[in-house]
């Protein structure tokens, strides 16, 4: 860069010769040398080109610095504490997948001090699964679940790992939905709600009541009346 700056003030012949030498030595890329040679002694244009080159390099360095700064801010670990009081040490970058945790973390705390984030609504077994999800998501982000769904088969919408992740007992699946909602982890909430939707698809009202443990407050006569009034729903 400084060699090229020095060439600005050299005579045209020296400028061209030195540019050719720099090209032969590999000090400047071929596309740059062609550009500089074509400009010749047009000093004003060359200065503009060098300023643009400098600005581009500055922008690149600034982006790298910003990324390194963000990575350093997310370095370290945080302890997530379950309902039972069990503590799970998790990398901050993973823990921040939870918007609840992200907004709770105190950025002014000393780097050597590990913060504790209480999660009183999440059981240890569920929190362990949540951490498993977030850790894997950082390595392999889940395909976004969009509507309308292209398939009712989970494995055809997201990667196999995520499809297998929600192949759990019904109670645990519901607890994962609750935890994802409480901790505000959108990808996990989308996945678990999708799994629940697949579970109840095609089920009757009675089956759905049993799945969600919903008591029927209607007498047989009242239920028959409601069914009759809403027969169009079943036909649709």
Descriptive account of the structure:
- The chain is 61% helix and 6% strand.
- It has a three-stranded mixed beta sheet with strand order 2-1-3.
- It starts with a helix and ends with a helix.
- The protein has 236 residues and is mostly helical.
- The relative contact order is 0.07.
- Helix 7 crosses helix 9.
Number of strands: 3
**Low-pLDDT regions:** 1-16, 26-48, 64-72
Radius of gyration: 31 Å
Return the string of H and E elements.
HHHHEEHHEHHHHHHH
Roughly what fraction of the amino acids lie in strands? Answer: 5-15%
Percent of residues in helices comes to 55-70%
Task: Give the strand order, joined by hyphens, for the main sheet.
Answer: 2-1-3
The major pleated sheet works out as: 3 strands, mixed
**Shape designation:** elongated
Task: State the end-to-end CA separation.
Answer: 72 Å
Look at the helices and sheets and give the structural class.
mainly alpha
Mean pLDDT: 76
Number of helices: 13
């Amino acid at each position: 860069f400084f060699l090229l700056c020095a060439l600005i003030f050299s005579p045209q012949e020296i400028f061209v010769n030195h540019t050719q030498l720099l090209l032969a030595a590999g000090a400047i890329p071929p596309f740059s040398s062609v550009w500089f040679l074509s400009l010749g002694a047009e000093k004003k244009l060359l200065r503009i080109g060098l300023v643009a080159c400098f600005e581009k390099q500055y922008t690149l360095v600034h982006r790298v610095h910003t990324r390194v700064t963000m990575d350093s801010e997310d370095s370290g670990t945080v302890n997530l504490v379950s309902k039972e009081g069990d503590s799970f040490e998790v990398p901050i970058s993973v823990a921040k997948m939870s918007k609840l945790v992200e907004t709770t973390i105190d950025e002014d705390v000393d780097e050597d001090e590990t913060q504790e984030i209480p999660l009183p609504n999440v059981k240890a077994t569920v929190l362990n699964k949540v951490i498993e999800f977030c850790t894997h998501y950082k390595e392999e982000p889940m395909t976004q679940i969009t509507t309308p769904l292209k398939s009712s088969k989970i494995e055809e919408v997201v990667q196999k790992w995520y499809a297998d992740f929600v192949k759990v007992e019904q109670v645990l699946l519901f607890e994962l939905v609750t935890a994802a909602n409480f901790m505000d982890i959108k990808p996990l909430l989308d996945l678990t709600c999708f799994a629940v939707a697949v579970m109840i698809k095609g089920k009757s009202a009675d089956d759905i009541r049993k799945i969600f443990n919903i008591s029927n407050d209607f007498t047989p006569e009242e239920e028959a009346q409601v069914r009759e009034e809403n027969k169009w729903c079943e036909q649709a």
